[in-house]
Amino acid sequence: MHIAIAGNIGSGKTTLTRLLSKHYGWEPKYEEADTNPYLSDFYNDMLRWSFNLQIYFLKERFKGLVEIERTGIDVIQDRTIYEDARIFATNLHSMGLMSSRDFENYTTLFNLMLSLVKPPELLIYLRSSIPNLVSQIHKRGREYESGIRIDYLSGLNDRYEKWISEYKDGKILIVDVDENKFEDRIDDLSQVIDRVDAQLHGLF
After folding, report:
1. Which pLDDT belongs to residue 43?
2. Most exposed of 64, 115, 116, 128 (fewest Cβ within 10 Å)?
3. What is the DSSP string of 111-160?
4. What residues does 44 pair with on adjacent strands?
5. According to the model, what pLDDT value does residue 54 have?
């Protein structure tokens, strides 16, 4: 079984991955964004480093999916390969922060990778307002995220909503994280777990 958790920067993907993996006893697959060697450079100069950043993320995500299929274990995944292409690379290109040449090259590689792996059985999308995202980003205090622009976050949110509205690759569960505080409230986490169970096992 493969559950993937999607959402904007600061929406709570890593936290929910940890909580669900503990509840179900499944292996968590974390994004580990901090290990991307281009991340700090990217936030200082997005135009120069956008392609490098996205290629690294795409490579790591594809490697993770290949491992999931090879091992056949039950997994909760923090962020999906779809988000790399449908959200982040597309947003960078539309903002003029990735050239059309680089974007076309990236998209061709993404489509090839996508043809070789399976989608998750369930996609959980963490929907959040911009003020909530900003609050969470400030709360966790990562230095390289201190320069994230509001228009960048807003552009990502718009693309997330468009992608989710068109998602047809499998089952989907939407959690409003402005209202559902699963990290701090056990009842809210129980609600998420009940909804996951309903999607996976048909419990109503």
Report:
1. 82
2. 115
3. HHHHTTSPPPSEEEEEE--HHHHHHHHHHHT-GGGTT--HHHHHHHHHHH
4. none
5. 95
Q: What's the pLDDT at 201? A: 84
- CATH assignment of the domain containing 10: 3.40.50.300
**128 pLDDT more than 60:** yes
Distance of alpha carbon 63 from alpha carbon 70, whole angstroms: 11
Residue written as token pair 């990562």: 142
Domain count, the chain: 1
Question: Global pTM?
Answer: 0.88
Residue 58 sits at the vertex; the CA angle it makes with 25 and 123, to the nearest 5 degrees, is 40
- Shortest CA distance to 89 belongs to which of 40, 52, 43? 52
Q: Is 32 left (phi over 0), alpha (psi -120 to 50) or beta?
A: left
- Parallel, antiparallel, or unpaired for β 2-7 and 122-127? parallel
CB 4 within 8 A of CB 203: no
Residues tagged active-site: 78
Cα torsion through 80, 86, 91, 93, rounded to 10: 120
Instruction: Supply the range of the domain harboring residue 92.
Output: 2-201
Q: Provide the b/e sequence for 147-159 (b: ≥16 CB within 10 Å).
A: ebeeebbebbbeb
Alpha carbon distance 81, 61 (integer Å): 6
Taken as a whole, the chain contains a residue count of 204
